[in-house]
Design a protein that fits this description.
Elements: H1 38-52, E1 60-64, H2 68-71, E2 81-84, H3 90-100, E3 105-111, H4 112-118, H5 120-129, E4 133-139, E5 142-143, E6 149-150, H6 173-180, E7 184-189, H7 193-205, E8 209-215, H8 231-237, E9 238-240, E10 242-247, E11 262-266, E12 272-277, H9 287-299, E13 303-310, H10 317-321, H11 333-336, H12 340-350
Parallel strand pairs: 1-2, 1-3, 3-4, 4-8, 7-8, 9-13
Antiparallel strand pairs: 5-6, 7-13, 10-12, 11-12
Helix pairs in contact: 1-7, 3-5, 4-5
Bound molecules: thiamine diphosphate, iron/sulfur cluster and magnesium ion.
Residues 33-34, 37, 39, 68, 140, 144-145, 218-221 line the site of iron/sulfur cluster.
Length: 351
Amino acid sequence: MTYIAKPKLHHPTLPKNRLGYTRRDYEGKISTLCAGCGHDSISAAIIQACWELAIEPHRVAKLSGIGCSSKTPDYFLGNSHGFNSVHGRMPSVVTGANLANRELLYLGVSGDGDSASIGLGQFAHCMRRGVNMVYIVENNGVYGLTKGQFSATADRGSKSKRGVANTDAHIDMVMLALQLGATFVARGFSGDKDQLVPIIKAAIEHQGAAFIDVISPCVAFNNHQGSTKSYDYVREHNDAVNFLDFISPRAPITTQYDPGTVQPVTLHDGSTVLLKKLHDGYDAHDRVAAMNYLAQHQSKGEIPTGLLYVEQDPEDLHAHLNTVDVALNKLGERELCPGSAALEKFNASLR
Ligand SMILES: Cc1ncc(C[n+]2csc(CCOP(=O)(O)OP(=O)(O)O)c2C)c(N)n1
Ligand code: SF4
Ligand SMILES: [Mg+2]
């Protein structure tokens, strides 16, 4: 419960990262979610990824909307900046914050209701503009917080807890992100931390809009037979296209691999992701092929997971707008108000 304070004392033998922080230093308050909720496993994966990357907590801004998923930033990175926005409005708040201060690492956490219903327009523009952020949708196919109504990501024909079949077509967030131009698109499963942690690490290092759809079962309202977002269903239908090994810039690549089966992808900060192909012929650098693969395999009831698409040299919103390298909120009066002569010259250039 959030009103029970976590003990501040850490066991002295807990492993520390490069900065001298233990995993506990990346935790937040005690979760109030239902025991077994997939969202808590995603929080644990975020904590693990940030600890392994030795990210300074004060460099992170975590933002969310409304929903059980959007409550989770309270349960991780307790020493980072946080903003809990209005329902579905996280993307525009991140966009503004990122434009004002490009030096922070932006982590947006949302739900399928928050992003695929009320926030769909916001999601779309954030992806197409290439806001440099990690955008995680904790996808359970229902509005968990308001007691389990179907969300827009619920598959047609999947059954509610009371046995009623969903008659509407579903929105596929991964397909949308690909279509909208996101430069990093992945899908994970909250029940597979080994796959999810390296995906989150790679997304953090990606310089652009990185979208991760994480299927995250709601144990209270969508974990029964007939649901396509239950733990059992996802385990049975998971079609992992690749597996990632994340290697920091300082570590030498020691993994042995046969050429052709593993593809090294160099990221912005010099780190490397070794992309192990689990599926013959899957090319994570081909946007159209990824969309075709998804369409074919999803129509057979499979759930492709892994790093589905990554652009090698992505451009983010700051590159599109050609902004200065320094964070705009650091510019002083001299830079912002260069004087009447400069204004005159600028006005003349427009005449
Ligand atoms: C403007 C507005 N409309 C509706 C609601 C009611 N509401 C709260 S959370 C939610 C949906 C949450 O679903 P999702 O984003 O999937 O999160 P989950 O709880 O499933 O993690 C809704 C419709 C609200 N809070 N604000
Ligand atoms: S209602 Fe569902 S989504 Fe919300 S905390 Fe419980 S299990 Fe998680
Ligand atoms: Mg939901």
